[in-house]
Amino acid sequence: MNMLKYLRSRNLMSRTYTITLAPPMLPDFHDSTLEDLAKGCPFLQSLDLADCKHVTDQGIILLARACRQLQQFKFSHHDKDYVENLQKYLDIPCPGQVTNTGIANLSELCKNLQYLDIARCKHISDHALFSLARNCKALQHLDISYCSNVTDTGLKAIAYHCRKLQSICFCDCKLVTDHALFTLARRCKALQHLNISSCRNVTDTGLEAIADHCKKLQSISVCKCKLVTDHALVSLAKSCKALQHLDISHCPQITDTGIAIIVDACKEIESINVSGCILISETGIHEIVLALPRLKHLNLDNLNITDASLAHIGGSCHSLETIQLHSCKEITDAGIQAIALGCPLLTGISISSCEGITDESLASLGYGCRNLRRVDASGCDISDPGIESLVQGCHHIQEIIVNYCSDDESITDDSLISLARTCPDLRYLEVSDCDISDSGIACLATHCLEIRYINVSYCCGITDACLLSLADECTKLERIDARKCKGITLDGIYEIKILLPKLKILYC
Questions:
Q1: How far apart are CA 247 and CA 199, in angstroms?
Q2: pLDDT tens across 299-319, in order?
Q3: Which 8-state DSSP code applies to residue 95?
Q4: How far is CA 313 from the centre of its chain?
């Protein structure tokens, strides 16, 4: 039954609703499928085609002609780095591309468009933005991140004509400068969310204009904006009291002084990312903790902090839900114990590449943080007993990453068996370069039926039998990373592709 017949059989053609495509449908979704969908849903208001890489301008035009009431459209490509290694063997076609032509037709025919996400559509330029500005006056959200051909001119057109804009993201648009921010600030005073990460030509001057005019700003990300300094934070502190989310990661000129000023002024901040800020010390972390006791999300990756900072966090931030501590080389089990005791609402933690972390940290987390869903302990000095202690207390883990823990058989099948017995909701597992075998994977496959992604790369004990176990039991599986697994053959790959044809496999 094709898409059009299905929609008719369900009596959906006269309703207004939202459609989001689940990942297993994406490889087979082409222009012709989109045409059937559009004809079957003329009153469609919201459509999410993220990562539907076979859809082209023709499909977008057919959609626009049939669905004039469309208000929200997502067509971003967020999986740019994951390329199926067997493409040349399995005859998988190259992804389609959407250009200015497709977006121009969409904007001309769907004038009520309010939400548009076309991130990583690399052929999009100012011409698409001119069409949007001319036709879609009600636009409130626009994401053109990684559209490297976009310039100040296109963004100025959006700012002049889309006065209702509340959220805009143009990460890594390297041609954009402060001039675009000046116009956005003056024309879009309702702006609440701004993401300009990796815009290398943006400076304090542009951000000062945003702060002066966009007083409703709730979130801002200037990650890797290397020209941004404390002066920008001072401007935000003066005017943007409603700020809730702040990402200043990898801004090399931000210091403890700027941090102290903004956290003291903006008491509503619940998420802050200062990872990779080389001038932020434990003094700055202490200022964050003292000023923001209701903090929920904290990213301290790659900072030179010690257990003293973690003790401050555990002693004050009792509402903390996630903390990132990747490559914080000086922290030890004592610091993680302080977090575990003081942050019982924690749902996610990364302690990867922290050389002072052992099984004791996992035991502390298992005892104190029963709500944990995500744990990344890659490259730590952990072993099977640590995993067992963790899952004894944390039965709701959905994602666990313990790559590169192969020294002295640290992580073996015993860890997989512990996970299988206690964590039925597991969806994401990475055990790259660990001493696991087909037996452990078979046990996991039998009990963890929700698994979507598994990384067993560089695991010498994995063979084709592992793939068959997963294919037989884990029907929701979407991806496997099996690089450098010497026991896996092309025959095994073909066999699992027959059982799960939409599965993505990385193998070489």
A1: 14
A2: 999 999 999 999 999 999 999
A3: P
A4: 25
